[in-house]
């Protein structure tokens, strides 16, 4: 099928559904594997081959993961978040997008990513803020620019005051 640039592109349906991909990604976090590649190749493709008969190669599976991001976030938001019971712990982690030495040549996140500082030093990218209750259940999360502090009022409102 020709696209706008005149090149032919394949447009076949994948052998794995989004539900299967999300199931595999969630099950990884409940296993003792430290490496996703070993988990997928050993557990999914060999041990669970009868459960996933249309299993893809590892490289193709990794290529398809971003397609399921929105569906997985919606699932987590609807089913997997805990309930606020009075005590909420808030912490953040860095999501670097480019090395500090190459930040002047950044193109993809040029207007969105900022320079921030963590306990490990300076980085360019974003921050993932998580709110958890005393049981360790995630209450909510928010992604912000790197220079936003955990104690920012807007972050706290999103993390604590969830419907």
Uncertain segments of ≥5 residues (pLDDT<50)? none
Main beta sheet strand tally, sense and closure: 4 strands, antiparallel
Shape: globular
- Kindly report the average pLDDT value: 85
Distance between the termini: 46 Å
**Secondary-structure element string:** HHHHEEEEH
Number of domains: 2
Rg calc: 20 Å
Report strand %: 15-25%
Number of helices: 5
Oligomer: single chain
Question: Helices and strands: which structural class?
Answer: alpha+beta
Give helix % range.
25-40%
- Using DSSP, what is the number of strands? 4
Could you describe the 3D structure shown?
The structure is a single chain. This protein has 163 residues and is of the alpha+beta class. The chain has two domains: 18-80; 88-160, no CATH class. Helix content is 31%, strand content 23%. The protein has five helices and four strands. The chain has helices spanning 18-28, 36-47, 58-64, 69-80, 153-160, and strands spanning 88-98, 114-118, 121-133, 138-145. Strand 2 (114-118) and strand 3 form a beta hairpin. The termini are far apart.
């Amino acid at each position: 099928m020709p696209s706008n640039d005149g090149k032919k592109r394949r447009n076949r349906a994948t052998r794995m559904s989004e539900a299967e991909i999300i199931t595999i990604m969630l099950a990884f976090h409940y296993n003792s594997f430290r490496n996703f590649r070993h988990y997928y190749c050993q557990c999914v493709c060999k041990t669970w081959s009868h459960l996933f008969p249309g299993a893809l190669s590892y490289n193709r599976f990794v290529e398809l993961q971003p397609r399921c991001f929105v569906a997985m976030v919606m699932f987590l938001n609807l089913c997997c978040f805990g309930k606020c019971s009075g005590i909420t712990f808030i912490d953040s982690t860095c999501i670097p997008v480019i090395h500090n030495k190459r930040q002047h040549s950044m193109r993809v996140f040029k207007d969105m990513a900022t320079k921030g500082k963590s306990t490990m030093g300076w980085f360019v990218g974003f921050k993932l803020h998580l709110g958890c209750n005393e049981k360790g259940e995630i209450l909510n999360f928010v992604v912000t620019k790197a220079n936003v502090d955990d104690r920012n009022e807007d972050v706290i409102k999103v993390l604590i005051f969830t419907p």
